[in-house]
Amino acid sequence: MSETTSTNVENKHLLNGRRAIPPNYSNDEENEVPEMEAFGLIPRGFNPRDYLSVVDIYMFKEPHEINKQEHHTDKYYNPKLIVRRGQTFQIQIEFNRPYKPESDQFWLEFLMGRYPQQNKGTYIPILVGNVLKPGQWGAKIIHRENNSIRLSIMSSTTCIIGKFRLYVAVLTPFGILRTRRNSATDTYILFNPWCQLDAVYLDDEKEREEYVLNDVGIVFHGNVEDVKSRSWSYGQFEENVLDACLFLMDKAELELSGRGNPIKICRVASAVINSRDDNGVIAGSWNNTYDYGVAPSAWTGSVDILLEYYSSKQPVRYGQCWVFAGVFNTFLRCLGIPARLITNYSSAHDNNANLRMDFFLDDEGKVDTRLTKDSIWNYHCWNEAWMTRPDLPVGFGGWQVVDGTPQETSDGMYRCGPASVQAIKHGHVCFQFDAPFVYAEVNSDIFYTRMEKNGTQVVENIDTTRIGQLIVTKEVGGDGMVDITEEYKFREGSDEERLALETAVMYGVKKQSIQDTTYQPQTDVDMDFQAQKAVLGNDFKVTITFRNKSRNSYTATTYFSGNIVFYTGVTKSEFKKHSFSAKLEPSSSSSFDIVIKSSEYMSDLLEQASFHFFVTARINETGKILAVQKAIILEIPTLRIKTKGELVAGKETSVIVEFTNPLKQTLENVILRLEGPGLLRTIKKQFGRIPMNSTLTWEVKFTPMRPGLRKLIASLNSDALRHVYGELNVQIQKP
């Protein structure tokens, strides 16, 4: 550390005229606690051993013991005690002699951070009483035998989340005797979705098992016509992940006293998950070059990312929306906040939040990429976290949108949420935080606008149904998809939908009404666009169909533009241009095919194999323009995973990953990753190259530690081919 930085650190903790003590936002720092706290002069001949003193403290912290079993924390790979707030746990204290309640007095102390204070919830003295009050700190003796007593301890339902140090203090006439600092008695306290008084209480056991205890999930990607899915390992119980998640709150400088509040935790976490403006966990990259880092598509889960950040304290490269959402989900579930990963298909990234995505056309009807600033993401992933919202009117608790992907700033930082899903649905976007932004992501309209030579804008076409037309998450207890669009918006075209929109506009969402613009569409001709199932490396066909519903003959000058795009809808290159004149007979349909050759797109293809097609047609007789756009995703080959031999906990077995290169080219710099939470930590292997049509086989030996249903997840990454995944559910037998 250079001299300047070390003095900065000291200055940071120096007191100034505003604070009595320095800011207290490190869960790791400690204060010195005296073992003997004298009341005055200690008389000669005083021997602490004459008084009650603690010989040992037993925490019942093994996974099979009562505390971790009752608190649903037995899955954490962590040797210390982990309990959930607002629920009793037990410890046993062994003294040097039998405890005499009439003359002996002792109490427990839980401390956190460097400057513990009772009024901040970082110093918690607990006296032993006769009754435990629900949701309040307290302790009572439930068993006495020889020199030991067993205590049942109740923690507060608003207790701060994190790692506490435990001391036992004994009162003597001359001072307080305390146990020595012993890290083995450290206790983690987490949120408790099983406790009715906790802000994150969730009343359905199956949902709690999914949204808190499931350590693998599904990311839905692709696009609305072609939904694809892949597994993601959250790994919230893996070794050191809990400490890494607590470190994120230290990094975000969230005061320890604020850490009992899930709203605050979500807000600061949505900023610290991305590296913008605070050197947070993941550096985003959307430009298809991933030097000195890992391509976003190569990650198979959150654990590697969190542990790398925890040890290096530097942003991990690289992520895109599902990576931010996957890591955020791990953070939330690890701390005990119910959470799920959401995918919004055709997600609007509206740069000026006016509920209007503007696509500008030039004179000929082609899209003008210079003027068009808004983009439609094929899909965008965010998270929902479950909590009450005492800061909002009644009815806006439940699922809250939180988003760690850096898109726009909120109060000066790249963060988003928590925004109530219920408030978004009903248009009550005045309620904090960032509801207007999320409202626009799921509700914008697409305007096709032509610029006249004199600068006036003519709206040629409006599409009100494309944005946010499908919002999904993983089903509870299975790998299927659940459509939750109706939780975010009323049915398209219903009265309630219009009312919600008017409410949103009243609360300040900018929306230009169609009356403000000159817009008379061509209503008697429909244009549709369909594509064949397209496989990576093959040719495929697209079809444009016109339906002329009128009694007139028309001719349509048609422009077709095929673009290779990032999944964010931003164009990298136009690889196909085609224009033709279509004759439209009265009351009839006519179709036109266009063949797309693999040689036209393979050299420029991006990792998610995404195309975006624009078709615009000018009806020559009326001068009106029809416009349609569509995203298409190529079918990418998958990895095959199989196991060899029997699968028994504690016994070595092996897994085989296979892949056949389908491309008409050699794959260079191939890297395979394999992981399975509770089965094996991520293993990476580099293969130089895979020639066309040849098959790669990789065998990995491992020893599964725990019985039960588990999942293996693999990914392949190379220069020319990414987003290749495979997975396998495995049942590990008891030995």
Automatic annotation (TrEMBL):
<dbReference type="Pfam" id="PF00868">
    <property type="entry name" value="Transglut_N"/>
</dbReference>
<comment type="similarity">
    <text>Belongs to the transglutaminase superfamily. Transglutaminase family.</text>
</comment>
<dbReference type="Pfam" id="PF00927">
    <property type="entry name" value="Transglut_C"/>
</dbReference>
<dbReference type="GO" id="GO:0072378">
    <property type="term" value="P:blood coagulation, fibrin clot formation"/>
</dbReference>
<dbReference type="InterPro" id="IPR023608">
    <property type="entry name" value="Transglutaminase_animal"/>
</dbReference>
<dbReference type="GO" id="GO:0005737">
    <property type="term" value="C:cytoplasm"/>
</dbReference>
<keyword id="KW-0094">Blood coagulation</keyword>
<dbReference type="InterPro" id="IPR036985">
    <property type="entry name" value="Transglutaminase-like_sf"/>
</dbReference>
<dbReference type="InterPro" id="IPR038765">
    <property type="entry name" value="Papain-like_cys_pep_sf"/>
</dbReference>
<keyword id="KW-0963">Cytoplasm</keyword>
<keyword id="KW-0865">Zymogen</keyword>
<dbReference type="InterPro" id="IPR002931">
    <property type="entry name" value="Transglutaminase-like"/>
</dbReference>
<feature type="binding site">
    <location>
        <position position="443"/>
    </location>
    <ligand>
        <name>Ca(2+)</name>
    </ligand>
</feature>
<feature type="binding site">
    <location>
        <position position="497"/>
    </location>
    <ligand>
        <name>Ca(2+)</name>
    </ligand>
</feature>
<keyword id="KW-0356">Hemostasis</keyword>
<comment type="subunit">
    <text>Tetramer of two A chains (F13A1) and two B (F13B) chains.</text>
</comment>
<keyword id="KW-0479">Metal-binding</keyword>
<dbReference type="InterPro" id="IPR050779">
    <property type="entry name" value="Transglutaminase"/>
</dbReference>
<feature type="domain" description="Transglutaminase-like">
    <location>
        <begin position="313"/>
        <end position="406"/>
    </location>
</feature>
<dbReference type="InterPro" id="IPR013808">
    <property type="entry name" value="Transglutaminase_AS"/>
</dbReference>
<keyword id="KW-0808">Transferase</keyword>
<dbReference type="Pfam" id="PF01841">
    <property type="entry name" value="Transglut_core"/>
</dbReference>
<feature type="region of interest" description="Disordered">
    <location>
        <begin position="1"/>
        <end position="29"/>
    </location>
</feature>
<dbReference type="GO" id="GO:0005576">
    <property type="term" value="C:extracellular region"/>
</dbReference>
<dbReference type="InterPro" id="IPR008958">
    <property type="entry name" value="Transglutaminase_C"/>
</dbReference>
<comment type="function">
    <text>Factor XIII is activated by thrombin and calcium ion to a transglutaminase that catalyzes the formation of gamma-glutamyl-epsilon-lysine cross-links between fibrin chains, thus stabilizing the fibrin clot. Also cross-link alpha-2-plasmin inhibitor, or fibronectin, to the alpha chains of fibrin.</text>
</comment>
<keyword id="KW-0012">Acyltransferase</keyword>
<feature type="active site">
    <location>
        <position position="380"/>
    </location>
</feature>
<dbReference type="InterPro" id="IPR036238">
    <property type="entry name" value="Transglutaminase_C_sf"/>
</dbReference>
<dbReference type="InterPro" id="IPR001102">
    <property type="entry name" value="Transglutaminase_N"/>
</dbReference>
<feature type="active site">
    <location>
        <position position="403"/>
    </location>
</feature>
<feature type="active site">
    <location>
        <position position="321"/>
    </location>
</feature>
<keyword id="KW-0964">Secreted</keyword>
<dbReference type="GO" id="GO:0046872">
    <property type="term" value="F:metal ion binding"/>
</dbReference>
<keyword id="KW-0007">Acetylation</keyword>
<feature type="binding site">
    <location>
        <position position="445"/>
    </location>
    <ligand>
        <name>Ca(2+)</name>
    </ligand>
</feature>
<protein>
    <recommendedName>
        <fullName>Coagulation factor XIII A chain</fullName>
        <ecNumber>2.3.2.13</ecNumber>
    </recommendedName>
</protein>
<keyword id="KW-0106">Calcium</keyword>
<dbReference type="InterPro" id="IPR014756">
    <property type="entry name" value="Ig_E-set"/>
</dbReference>
<dbReference type="GO" id="GO:0003810">
    <property type="term" value="F:protein-glutamine gamma-glutamyltransferase activity"/>
</dbReference>
<feature type="binding site">
    <location>
        <position position="492"/>
    </location>
    <ligand>
        <name>Ca(2+)</name>
    </ligand>
</feature>
<dbReference type="InterPro" id="IPR013783">
    <property type="entry name" value="Ig-like_fold"/>
</dbReference>
